[in-house]
Amino acid sequence: MEIVDATVIVSSPGRNFVTLKITTDEGVTGLGDATLNGRELSVVSYLRDHVVPLLIGLDPHRIEDTWQSLYRGAYWRRGPVTMAAIAAVDVALWDIKAKVAGLPLYQLFGGASRDRVRTYGHANGRDIPELLDSVRARLAEGYRSVRVQTGVPGLETVYGVHAGTAIAPATADGVRVDARALPVVEDWDTGRYMRHLPRVLEAVRAEFGPDLPLLHDAHHRLTPQQAARLGREIERYDLFWLEDCTPAEDQSGLRLVRQHTTTPLAIGEVFNTVFDYQTLIDERLIDYVRSAVTHFGGVSPLRKLFDYAATRQIKSAIHGPEDISPVGMAAAIHLDLAIHNFGIQEYSGYTPLTHEVFRHAFTFDDGHLHPGEAPGIGVELDEELAAAHPYSPAYLPVNRLADGTVHDW
Ligand SMILES: [Mg+2]
Questions:
Q1: EC number(s) in its UniProt entry (predicted)?
Q2: Cα–Cα distance between 267 and 257 in angstroms, integer?
Q3: What SS3 class is residue 10?
Q4: Which CATH code is given to the segment(s) 108-374?
Q5: pLDDT > 90: what percent of the chain?
Q6: Which helix (H) or strand (E) holds 8?
Q7: Under a CB-based contact definition with an 8 Å cutoff, are residues 351 and 11 in contact?
Q8: Residue 266 DSSP class
Q9: Distance 291 CA to ligand 1 centre (A)
Q10: Which helix (H) or strand (E) holds 91?
Q11: pLDDT at 320 over 70
C-alpha cells in the first residue's frame, strides 16, 4: 500500500478549520486536523509546500517512522506550526490503519478502558447572574462538570465571556478577505480579577451546592506569586482544577504555586512536545496535562505523554475548544476511551453547519462522549459543503492593561 495523494482543505463553517486528507493507492482515505487558530495559513503552507511532497509513495502503515522522519528530518524541531502539521499526518495515518483493520481507532490502542468519556462544558456570563444562568443551561444540556468564567467589574471584555474570535464579514462577491479583521483588544487588571473570583465561586457554590465539579481558567495571566495566593484563597471552593494559572513555559515557576496551594492545577494547551512538561511532570507540579492532539504532533506522541504522566499519577485532560475541528476531537475521544489515566475531556460542541461539514460517528450524550464504532476515527469531510465556506481571516484577541501595556491573553 502506498500514499498517492495528500490534499489540504481549508474551510470556515463558522470558524476556520484546516484538514489534511491522505489517499492510498487502494482508495483508503484518512483525515487529520491541522487547525492553528489565528495562524491557520502558516500550517497550510508547511503542509502543502514542505510535507505533502515527502508523503507521496510512502507506506501509510509506517506511522512511527513517518512521524520521526518529519520531526527529526526537518532539523528545525518543535513549535506549533511544525507540530500541527505533523499531527495532521499522524492522525490521518492512524485513521487509514484503523480503516484497513476494520476497527474503530481506540481498538488499536488496546481497546476501551471505560464505557464513556466524561466531559466538561463552558459556562460564562458578563456578571454573576448571567453566569448562573449559563451554568443552568449547561446542566440542562447534560453536562456534569462545568468551567465557569465571568466578566470582572470595571473591565470591558474578559477571556471566555464573549465570542473571542473576530471573523471578517463576507464581501459582496462572497470572498471574506478583509483587512479590518484585526484582533479584538481586551482589557485586564489582575487585582480586580483576584478580588472578584472568590465572590464568583462563592455564588456558584451557593446556587449549585458542593457536588458539581467546577473548573476555572486563569488563562496565563498571573505571576507564580499571584497564582500561589489565588490558589490558596479559593481552596475552600474545591475546584476540579485551576487552569493555566501562570505562563508555564516558565516551568520552575510552578514550584512556587505548588508550595502554597493544594488547588489542583491543569496546564499545557499551548505546549507542543513532551519537553515542555519535563519539570512539571518529574516534580509533580501539576495534576492534569492539557495538550491537544492537534497541537502536540498527533495521537502517537500524546499517548507517550500520558504514559509518562501516569508515572506521577497525573491525568489527561485533552484541550477541546471549538477551534479543534471534529477531526481532532474524534482522535482525542478514541484516546480518552483507551488510556487508563484519563481525567476529563473539554468539549464545547460545534455549530450545526460544522457538524454537517464534518459528519462524525462520535456522540455526545448525558455529558459524555463516545467515539462510535465506525472504522478509523469515524469522521468524513463533505468537501463540497466545505468549499462553499471559504477561509476567513481571523485572529485571537490580544490583552492590554489600563496603561496600554500588552499582557498575556
Ligand atoms: Mg484553556
A1: 4.2.1.8
A2: 13
A3: strand
A4: 3.20.20.120
A5: 93
A6: strand 3-11
A7: no
A8: E
A9: 10
A10: helix 80-101
A11: yes
Average pLDDT over residues 14-27: 97
All residues with CB under 5 Å from ion ligand 1: 217
Q: What is the mean pLDDT of the chain?
A: 95
Joined grid coordinates for residue 354 = 460544522
269 C-alpha to ligand 1 centroid (Å): 6
User: pLDDT per residue over 127-173, tens digit each?
Assistant: 999 999 999 999 999 999 999 999 999 998 878 785 444 444 444 44
Confidence at residue 160, expressed as pLDDT on a 0 to 100 scale: 77
CA of 219 to the centre of ligand 1 (A): 6
**Confidence (pTM):** 0.95
- Would strands 288-289 and 394-395 be described as parallel, antiparallel, or unpaired? unpaired
CB 268 within 8 A of CB 249: no
- What is the model's pLDDT at position 162? 58
Task: Kindly give the distance from the C-alpha atom of residue 243 to the centroid of ligand 1, in angstroms, as a whole number.
Answer: 6
For CATH 3.20.20.120, the residue range(s) in the chain are: 108-374
Residue 51 DSSP symbol: I
Burial (Cβ within 10 Å: 0-12, 13-18, ≥19) of residue 49: exposed
Radius of gyration, alpha carbons of the chain: 21
Residues of CATH 3.30.390.10 domain(s) within the chain?
3-104
For 212-223, the pLDDT digits (tens) are 999 999 999 999
The one-letter code for the residue type at 371 is: P
Determine the topology of domain 3-104 in CATH.
Enolase-like; domain 1 (3.30.390)
Average pLDDT score over residue span 229-236? 98
Residues annotated as catalytic (active site), given as ranges: 159, 219
How are beta strands 146-150 and 214-217 bridged, if at all? parallel
CA distance 268 to 274: 10
C-alpha 308/C-alpha 89 separation (Å) is 23
End-to-end CA distance of the chain: 46
